[in-house]
Amino acid sequence: MKHTEVKEIMSNPELVGSFVTVCGWVRTARDSKNMAFLALNDGSTLNHLQIVIDKNAGVNLPPEAAKLGASLKIEGTVVVNPNNGSAEIDAKEIAVLGVCPEDYPLQKKFQKLETLREMPHIRVRTNTFNAVFRVRSVMAAAIHRYFQERGYIYVNTPLITGSDCEGAGEMFKVTTIGYSDAYKNADDYYADDFFGKKAGLSVSGQLEGEVMAMAMGKIYTFGPSFRAEKSNTLRHVAEFWHVEPEIAFAELPDLIEIAEDMMKYIIRDYMEKCPEELKFFEERFEKGLTEKLLNVINNDFAIVDYTDAIELLKKADADFEYPVEWGCDLQSEHERYITEKIYKKPVFLINYPKGIKSFYMKQNPDGKTVAATDLLVPGVGEIIGGSEREADLDKLVKAMQDKGMSMDDYGDYLALRKYGSVPHSGFGLGFERVIMYCTGMSNIRDVIFYPRTVGNIR
Predict the structure, then answer these.
(1) In a 10 Å sphere around its CB, with 0-12 CB exposed, 13-18 middle and 19+ buried, how is residue 35 labelled?
(2) Predicted TM-score (pTM) of this structure
(3) DSSP state, residue 237
(4) Of the candidates 42, 122, 162, 234, which lies 20 to 30 Å from 50 by C-alpha distance?
(5) What is the DSSP string of 392-417?
């Protein structure tokens, strides 16, 4: 169906006076005896296009066309609204493409996000989610552009895997058998399953990414990951999108430099390409959002040793729910206090205790810590987790044995340390969390299309 997008009409002054066809959904409608006004949106922009219907000029307005949610095709002339200078359509012909009954869920002007969450198929038509998912698209493109411009190879790592990258046992099981009492034990069950062994959905593409980095030098993955955590928090979902670069011949300081540069690139691109959406989020969801983002791109991030951070938290004038001691895994309240109250900007925490970090992280000479880093940002907490990877085969095997891991499941990964091992590093960026940070949306369920959480799927 040939038509001109609303964004093009509202941004191209050369179209004034042109006869065009537009399509979209009715967002608001005002109807009277002689005149009618419709606000039309086709998803190409946050702004609505006003349609002016002059009934005295013989323009027919079908009754179904003035219903909220109805989809229309309108032919008319592009004119300039004398009151605000924006483009609008002087309608000549109106055709109803899809009727919408009175039980359309978006009759109210404002609805709670919790209510909209129950109708993900409809909420995307609201201004809020129209803006969220346009920003998500722009930021995804920026991520690909950042790495492509710097010579990284884009890799699609497996979604079904036989090894647990994090070693935490929080994988979704993949099976074609399902429940059965026909097997005496788990070994017999998995031997009869599709792959002949235990398989699950990937929690990360890192291990396979490291394989590619040992041949291609620097790679990145950008795709879904799955965590079977029974976490019902504002920043956890069971299926999320993961950005994971792996870089050969890179140590922890190199990784920190890359992560900071990438974050600034993404945020700068978003601010340049989505000014209307940014203004919308600042007005509706987070006052001072623009200033916060400018502070990120115009200043160096702090780099703080975990041990120093623990001492700062112990001295903090704050009533933490979880006590702080060296060796503890920092909670969101600790991370946010560090970045929001102490430094007031993004912070790289480095050199975590090895007991609370994954087996693959490079062990520091002190024997107690690993060359790991988490990037903490105000309002969200951890947004990036990364490390230099352990390149020493003996140390890696020892770390895996200490955690009770099976060597058989990691044969390919261990072989990387035998054949030309090099210092290398990588990190994982939770895509939804960076969207939260840049939009002011406080719940991760509101920045992903169909959120999957414990006890909830549709």
Answers:
(1) middle
(2) 0.93
(3) -
(4) 122
(5) -HHHHHHHHHHTT--GGGGHHHHHTT
Closest among 76, 72, 73 to 91, alpha carbons compared: 76
**Other C-beta atoms within 10 Å of 231: how many?**
14
Q: Could you tell me the two tokens for 60?
A: 């027919």
79 burial via Cβ count (<10 Å: 0-12, 13-18, 19+) = middle
Q: Count of alpha carbons within 13 Å of 370, Cβ hemisphere only?
A: 25
Contacts of residue 19, defined as CB under 8 A and 6 or more positions apart, other chains included, come to 75, 76, 77, 92
Q: What are the Cα distances from residue 126, in Å, to 30, 251, 282? A: 19, 45, 17
Q: Quick one: CA dihedral 341, 344, 345, 350, positive or negative?
A: negative
DSSP strand E in 175-254: where? 200-201, 218-226, 239-248
**Crossing angle (nearest 10°) for helices 252-273 and 431-439:** 50
**pLDDT by residue (tens digit) across 204-232?**
999 999 999 999 999 999 999 999 988 88
CA dist 235 → 241, 387, 403, 430, 436 (Å): 13, 22, 27, 10, 9
pLDDT per residue over 142-199, tens digit each? Answer: 999 999 999 999 999 999 998 877 665 689 999 999 999 999 999 999 999 999 999 9
Cβ-based neighbours of 424, under 8 Å, separated by 6 or more: 210, 213, 214, 246, 247, 248, 249, 250, 388, 389, 391
Tokens of 327: 């060796």
Give the 3-state secondary structure of residue 196.
Answer: coil
CA–CA dist 160, 86 (Å, integer) = 51
Q: State the DSSP code for 202.
A: -
- Amino acid present at 393: L
- Residue 427's Cβ-count burial label (10 Å; 0-12, 13-18, 19+) is buried
Rg (CA), the chain: 26
The whole-angstrom separation of Cα 325 and Cα 304 is: 16
> Residue 297 is encoded by which pair of tokens?
């791109």
Stretch (H or E) spanning 386: strand 381-388
The answer to whether residues 414 and 397 touch, using CB atoms and an 8 Å cutoff, is yes
In angstroms, the first-to-last Cα distance of the chain is 31
CA 212 to chain centre: 24
Main-chain phi, psi angles of 68, to 5 degrees: -60, 135
Q: Which residue in this structure is represented by tokens 């090895």?
A: 354
